[in-house]
Amino acid sequence: MSDSPLAIQHAPELRHHFADMEQQRDAASFGMWLFLGTEVMFFGGMFCAYLIYRYWYYNEFAIGSRSISIWLGTINTVVLICSSLTVALGVRAAQMGRRKLLVTLLLITMVFGVAFLGIKGLEWYQKFEEHHVPGSSFNVDDLVQKYPGIHIDPAHSQIYFSLYFALTGLHALHMVVGLGIFTVLTYMAWKGRFTPEYHTPIEIGGLYWHFVDIIWIYLFPLLYLIDRKPIH
Amino acid sequence: MATAVVSTTERENYINAEYGVRSWLFTTDHKRIALLYLISITAMFFVGGFFALLIRLELLTPAGDLVQADTYNKLFTMHGQVMVFFFLIPSIPAVLGNFLIPLMVGAKDLAFPRINLLSWYLYIIASCMMLHCILTGGVDTGWTFYTPFSTAFSNTKVVEAGLAIFVAGFSSILTGLNFVVTVHRMRAPGMTWSRLPLFVWAHYATSIIMLLGTPVLAITLLLVVFERVFHLGIFDPTRGGDPLLFQHLFWFYSHPAVYIMILPAMGVVTEIIPCFSRKRVFGYSFVAMSSIAIAVFGFLVWAHHMFVAGISLYSALFFSILSYLVAVPSAVKVFNWTATMYKGSISFSTPMLYALGFIGLFTIGGLTGLFLAALGFDVHVTDTYFVIAHFHYIMVGGAVMGYLGGIHFWWPKISGRMYPEAWGRLSAAIVFIGFNLTFFPQFILGYLGMPRRYWQYPPEFQVLNVFSTAGSTILAVGYLLPLIYLMWSLRYGKIAGPNPWGAAGLEWMTPSPPSTFNFDETPTVTWEAYNYDEIPAPEEEVSLER
Amino acid sequence: MKSQLTATPAPPRPEHILSAGMYVTIWIALMILTVVTAGVSFIDLGPFNTVVALVIASIKALLVVLFFMHVKYASDRLIKTICVAVLFWLMLLLGLSLMDYGTRHFS
Q1: Does B111 contact A at CB distance below 8 Å?
Q2: Helix axes B350-373, B385-394, angle to 10 degrees
Q3: pTM
């Protein structure tokens, strides 16, 4: 890797308040990790709400969990994990200076992201059709009838679905922001802005994307897999 | 980019380096951003202060005769929200922290200058949202937004206020992020952690709180907004929701938030005291570690705001014990400041007067916090004026006085001018007297049982209320005077040299005001902090002739 | 002027270019764990269903953090400290809140 002082001094991407590219890259990475830390606490507040209401209303949470499609949830999990792979490989392509490969991988990542959102939209539509969206038309009579042996309070059920929509909604919003960031990154990559010496935006964009994946890795069991044991 | 002509009388500095509104609104210079914050925060301070005056006017008489009850609810809500989120939380970090931290660590700017500017724009957007909310009806839930009133019953602009505070919180998070990365990665050669000014340590601790706590407030307010807009009933008791869950999530941030407000002020005081005692800080590492301890312990005590709300007794016991513990690091600081002054050469300049006032008033406020941490006593005085007096002693007697002291101390560095010392001291005295007259009677009122947030009260409480209102008008004068003479000094104040106080720290080794890039060459630090044994006292004694 | 500037000496970080094979291996592991966690949810393990699900999720998250996000190869401990500290703070929020709810019926 060309590390001659002359090259670094004249690197056009070096911001003036930094002494060298190393410091700039370290600062950017550190900053993104701190930001991801704040995001953990942000989702953490909702996980706290989830934890307490699941503790109180286990039955309603279990039944609510059964009413969403485990197939779609699993597929979405697979989609996101694949997108994390393509992101990681994309960072690697940037490290090697392989522009076309980088652009391809970034595009594939975005396709996965859009697929995720599409499937999520389908799931939300299903809930809408089944009247499981909190609000004035909320109705879980279908679930009450489906599981006659289990006591379900519709009010408590509504809490499960409120958390479902809040959690998946905020996660999807973060996904949309991620897609926006990656659009910009893909454009910059296509324009040849990244080199083995300078590809910090790809690195920190990648960190953000992985984080969104990790949130989903927890949302999947917490929302979809609460209780799918066969009922006797 | 220097386009100004450097005249023989005016050296190029960060203020005259570029002219024009665009050069200010699109600046990435941390010093200019600090000034942008200074102006906006001052404006919000007077907005919040205006509501305070209306409250005190209403409380002059026992009857509710100035405003209606619903309006009174809005007055104390708007006072609280504006003061907490739009003045106290940003104040010292956004103004003094932004200006000084790069100078103090020997850097050219913060780690992320453009994010710094974004932070200010978010603050402005949030302030506009809040002002619009106020002008179109306001909020009446109390600054604490308790559910289910805020989610299901209030007819006021809860959503708009909540979103405004959400945006302001984002501004706060970005500031904290910038500070942490700067302190870790941008220190000049030789500036080890143990040579950092304690002001920097205080802001580092503050930033940790901002990063870890503010997101929880963000999600909590968002959930309130979701409940009002999308009818997600997470806090709605009729749907099995728990209003206490809101309080847990709200106070998880809002208690550490009070440490966001006080730690920077403590940092300011720790800079002022050694300078005007001509002695190094006693117990540097204890003061540094106590800042970190306050930041950590501050997260372990939040439910002391909920002792009578319905939490379990065992939970209350835990939080009560921890609330006692969190006072220890604060006390450590008070001892260290006192020991710093012991056998020092004290001069009673304006910053020193504010710092001394801070120590006394913060101690009273802090001790009354211990009263409140005792479960039995808290049952008696919760939701009374005792609590109001307690937190105003810390936030106004503490944080605001720290802010004013810091503004005066670094004013020569920021503006290149000296403020008129006589007026400075007079204002400090007026603030001190006005403050105590306003808030000390409230301790008594609270103990006697006057509830907070009530717009009427039994006639036997009137005398103390009249004292309090009288004090508030004096306090208002005390705050207006610096506004006037500081602005006056910009034009007519005596020109300041690089180090008019003979203070320690890298910022005092730059010209006043500093040039845009702070240092011509990155300094290499070989001396310990607060090396007052090496720094000569200022040539002119701090006197009233200035 | 610039050449004289030295900043806080940043730890020299040779860029680890990790092999594509390593990423694919981790990806395969994540896939397997996903299928396992979905499948296990149909088996009755009593209260351990939740434990198993969370343990598997945590392993997956750890793999992403360590390998995809390069934390295993981070030369300074600052990033690792952030991860641990944030997790600890999250546990504070969850744990101390649960302490209230968990002990209410004793009061």
Answers
A1: yes
A2: 140
A3: 0.93
